[in-house]
Amino acid sequence: MNKELMFALSNADAVACREGEVRSIMHAELDDIADAVEYDKLGSIMFKSAGTEENPVRILFTGHMDEAGFMVRYISDIGMVHVIGVGGPRKNSVESQIVRIKTRSGEKVRGVLFAKRDTDGTPTDMYIDFGCETAEEVRELGIEIGDWGTFAAECELKPVSDILLGKAFDDRAGVYVVTEAMKRLANTPHAAELWFAGSSSEEVGCRGAQTAAAHLDADIVIPVDIANPPEFDRGWNNSRKNGHGPMIVHYDRMHVPNEKLLHFIVDTAEKNNIPFQRDLFKGGGTDAGTAHLVGDGKLATVIGVPLRYCHGSWSVMRGADLDAAVDLVCALATSIDRVTYEELKSFE
Fold it and tell me: Is the model's pLDDT at 205 over the cut of 90?
């Protein structure tokens, strides 16, 4: 595992359509080895690795850059800063947490997040206390309505089993995987034309992979995302166990993968001795749900990295699962050529 890269990605702050910090990290990592760099109009960034075939199949691997966070909606006369959630912050993580708001000038101001709750315990009003007593003091800090922020956790690595703690693993884990995969393949010939992307705005409607797929007219789209397990369950009902390899997603509420592609990915993992888990999303969706509907349809499925406490102030993940996901992306990237693609998409 590339500890420095994972730390940088986790510690960067980026909600939907405010992903400049993550985009800059990807650019610094991949610009020198990319055959081309392109952007869609939402801010998704795409890096090309040219294929060796004359008419190569075009494969897009994505990880979404945005995380669950907050946006300022009101500054009260007594100096409390009321916020809304952007991308669904975890409900049990919105009290007594340190968060940081990024001002227009780029400065980050730390405060304490709290929430009022209804009788069912659902947060009804989230607010940040910066210690101010007036709205004027808040504005002296540079904070204004429309400014955005995130949890203020700083990534750390435990000295046992590559255990990572940090924020924004959804989906900096996916961004890490596509970034490391492209770097690993820099000197490896491959038939397909490969694109490795940081997509925008997944948490507010699975948007960026759709626009990136349309921009590139990709033939295959494979988002790398995460999934949240029941943390006390280690039985059959938990197919997202930390340390057991990435998930190959067989179903979510927005997308049922092409069966041939799904079998090809499973076979590729088994052939290369890559540990994996078979997973189904009973709720929720991913970028595959929108990207596979571009044009007359795209072959798509999702590779997931298991972690606990998705969208929370902290999440828990293992480096070995990141490494196995990189292995799987690289194996797929070097296994698909034009003939394989024509077979996968054929319904005859």
Answer: no
Please pick, among 19, 193, 202, 203, the residue that the annotation labels catalytic.
202
**Is 43 contained in some domain?**
yes
Indicate the pLDDT class of residue 279, thresholds 50, 70 and 90: very high
Residue 339 lies in domain: 3-67+167-345
- pLDDT bucket at 84, cuts 50 / 70 / 90: very high
Tokens of 79: 């100096």
Q: pTM, whole model, 2 decimals? A: 0.95
| 91 CB-near residues (< 8 Å, 6+ apart) | 122, 123
Structural domain includes residue 158: no
Strands 220-227 and 123-129: unpaired
Do 90 and 185 have their domain in common? Answer: no
User: In the annotation, is 202 catalytic?
Assistant: yes
Is pLDDT of 124 > 90? Answer: no
Domains identified in the chain, total number: 2
Same domain, 231 and 85: no
Whether 283 has a pLDDT exceeding 90, the answer reads no
| Other C-beta atoms lying within 10 Å of the C-beta of residue 133 | 11
Instruction: Specify whether 122 is located in the same domain as 105.
Output: yes
Distances (CA, A) of 78 to 75, 94, 323: 8, 21, 49
Rounded distance between C-alpha atoms, residue 50 and residue 199, angstroms: 20
